[in-house]
Design a protein that fits this description.
alpha+beta
Length: 140
Amino acid sequence: MLSNLLVSVPSVVLMVVLFGLIIVWMVFSKRSQAKRQQETMDMLNAIKPGNKVKTIGGICGIVVEVCPEDNTFVLETGTENSGKSYIKFDKQAVYQTDAVVEKAAPVAPAEEQPAEEVFEEAKAEEKPAEEVAENTEETK
């Protein structure tokens, strides 16, 4: 009976380690998937008129108009010689784009001054019109 217990303990440890590795793999997989999805959404939200876009169907063109209400954009394809055409696509149809995601710069906490003090400081720095006129006459 003791020998049976010694044989089963390594298999239980092996199962626990294997189960733990699967859980860790699932957690890291979920995090990387969420990060990739956020990057994709940022890229789609960065699309503006003038950006070059390639759709999942292989159509290449320049974005003319973006409609955030229904999550679409209008793509201009063709040339002046062959004739231009305009096609409306859903943003999820974008495969590649040259749109650059603007990352928000961290805002450093600044000393807050009441608006009245800022206004008074700005007024104090301004020169009266008479002084400016005198200075310009002296330089002539």
